[in-house]
Amino acid sequence: MKRTDRICRILQILMENPNRVFPLGYFAALFDCAKSSVSQDMKTIRESVAEGGYGRVTIATGARGGVRYMPHISGEKAQETLREIQRKFLETDRVLGSGFLYTSDIMFDPGIARGAAGIFARRFAESEATCVVTVETKGIAIAAFTAELLHLPLIVLRRESKISEGSTVSINYFSGSADRIQKMSLAKRALQPGAKALIIDDFMRGGGSIKGIQDMLGEFDAHTVGIGVMIVAESDHRKKIGDYFPLLLLDLDEKGEGVAGVRLNPEIENNGLQVESQPEK
């Protein structure tokens, strides 16, 4: 195989498996070549990916070393994605009344979901999360793409337990600003004790659902290392959680029957979406 063909194939494998660590020996065996040749290929790939602005390739040596492709969304691309979501949220026929918005077409649009996940994946790249957690149903697409980009398992909490999940843990929680009592459940085998969870959700008004997820994590001796939310209603100040990363901020009108405005998270709007990277070995 020519070197250019080998480089293209290696890059394809890396990009199809984001955030997965591959030992250099894996590629040496796959393409029947010396590790030194693969090492040179990786340097070329790393420079190309960096110059293209669509990710970062890290190379670590040692027994546990290897190469990893980390997806990267630029500040400009993040703004472009969120401007499209902003435009959709401002459509006049989206308000259903009593402050409820129709969002299914937004949350289940693959392009939008993947774009939002790219922002979350960049923001929480160094969170050391061991899983991505969400609650059914509208946040599943965004959470699934985020889990894929971070190479983490996805765990979905259900509103009602299912017999197909075996033994479950269920809790009651206060949902929304109206403090309605609701229920969520999770299979006992779904989450390992001590897990580090990245919570991803689609919409937050009062933060009751996310607080419920955190309470559920506590039942498994797991804890939260980050919270990402697609859109947060700022007009409701009775938030049950405080440390979260929103993509968009929504204001309802005084009657709560229409959208007064939708703003980008200032961190993203100012092109300041930065992540502290771990030192490269």
Task: Tell me what the structure shows.
- With 281 residues, the protein is α/β, with parallel strands linked by helices.
- It folds into two domains: 69 residues, Orthogonal Bundle (Arc Repressor Mutant, subunit A), CATH 1.10.10; 195 residues, Rossmann fold (3-Layer(aba) Sandwich), CATH 3.40.50.
- Helix content is 35%, strand content 27%.
- The chain has nine helices and twelve strands.
- The strands form four sheets. Strands 6-5-9-10-11-12 form a six-stranded mixed beta sheet, with helices on both faces. A two-stranded antiparallel ribbon has the order 1-2.
- A hairpin with a 6-residue loop joins β11 and β12.
- α2 packs across α3.
- It is globular.
- The two termini are 30 Å apart.
- The relative contact order is 0.13.
Chart the SSEs and their pairings:
Layout: H1 3-16, H2 24-30, H3 35-52, E1 55-60, E2 66-71, H4 75-89, E3 95-97, E4 100-101, H5 104-107, H6 110-123, E5 131-135, H7 140-150, E6 154-157, E7 168-175, E8 180-187, E9 196-204, H8 208-219, E10 223-233, E11 245-252, E12 259-264, H9 266-269
Parallel strand pairs: 5-6, 5-9, 9-10, 10-11
Antiparallel strand pairs: 1-2, 3-4, 7-8, 11-12
Helix pairs in contact: 1-3, 2-3, 4-6, 6-7
